[in-house]
Structure formats: C-alpha cells, structure tokens
Amino acid sequence: MVEFRELRTAVELAVLPRFEQQVWGGEQEVVSVNMLVATIAEGGVAIGAFDGAELIGSVYGFPTSDPRVLHSHYLAVASSHRGRGIGVELKMRQRRWCLERGLTAMRWTFDPLQLANAHLNLRVLGAFGERYHVDYYGTLGGINGSLPSDRVVVRWQLNGDPPPGSQRRTVLAPRISPQQIAAADQVAHAARLHLRAELEPWISRGWVLVDVDVAASTYFIAR
Questions:
Q1: Predicted TM-score of the model (pTM)
Q2: In the prediction, which pLDDT does 139 show?
Q3: CA distances from 93 to 5, 96, 97, 137, 146 (A)
Q4: How far apart are CA 126 and CA 174, in angstroms?
C-alpha cells in the first residue's frame, strides 16, 4: 500500500535530492536540503509517496510573487512504479494543500517534446500552457541530455475554471523518444528547433496550449 506524507524537516527531506538523481540522472540541478527547508518554511510544500520505507514519488513546490499561486517545481515517480496513478494522486494532494491555504492556481514547466508529460498536464489535469521559454534552465544533463531546455509554462486553475479561448488550431509534434532526448542526437535537436518554431510564435501572441493527442502527436492551441 502506498503511503503519502508531507515532508517538512531536514531529516524528512533528506531523501529528495537522492531521489531526484535517481529519476533524472543529473547532479548539478538537484534541489539541496537546505533550499527545500527554507522554501517550505516560507510557504512551500513537499509530499512524498512511500512503498514501505522506499520513496517512490514526490512533488515539491514553492511560493511565487503572486500569493494565490504556487510554483510546482517538480513531480517525480520512480520508473518501477509508473502507470499506477501515483503522479496524479500526488498532484491532487498538492492541489488540496493549496486550496486549504487559499491558493487558487499552480504553475510549472514541462518539455513540449515529452508528450506523455503533456498528456498528464493538459488532458488529465486540465492545465493550459501559457508561456514558452527558450533554453529556460540551460544545459541540464541526465535524461535531458544537452538539448536546449525549452519549456512551456502551464497554469492549473484549481477552482476548475476552463482554459481561455475556443478558436482552435493544431500543431504537429515530432515523435521523439526519451532515449533520443537523453542522447541529444541530431534528430532530437532538429525536433527541438522545429517544435520551438511551431509553438513559440503562437504562444507569444496570446494563444495557449489546451490539449494534446499523443497517438496523433498533435497539440491543440486556442486563442
């Protein structure tokens, strides 16, 4: 049985940097324990999912300049436990935590080449992509390889309000595997530049990502 616990102290949070390395493979971009403690003390939240004593999933977020919005910095689930709804449950628990404290929205980023993540964010949770950042984090390494770290910022309205707009267009996304992204091969790099050229101009003009069809490798954008 999976147990979900809020993590607050340095001792409780010590498992998170190791878990980040396990999931993403990088070492330089891990959130340190002292930073976790500080941001949580200032209004952030970390929730862990445990199978016995083993951490198998986590979600972490911190306050933003808007007192009604939490930035959800990461959601991570161990590869051995994916496909069991743990990621969705972590997001729902984070949502409940926010609503109990008067927060009405969450923001986070995702790689638009990762269509499985887009599916969770846009279709399952109902968030919408409102900004596009070119090479947002710089080189990340690990499962992100050395590709430019382009990211879409999504907003999740926790009160259930629908995303804005009704006029829709479609944008085809290249089919790129996680292995190609990690290797940052020539095909993955070309895919990054192609999708950037397709999405960034629309989003910069006020259109938003509202849905994705993974099977058809297609994004839907709305004005």
A1: 0.92
A2: 84
A3: 10, 5, 6, 27, 33
A4: 22
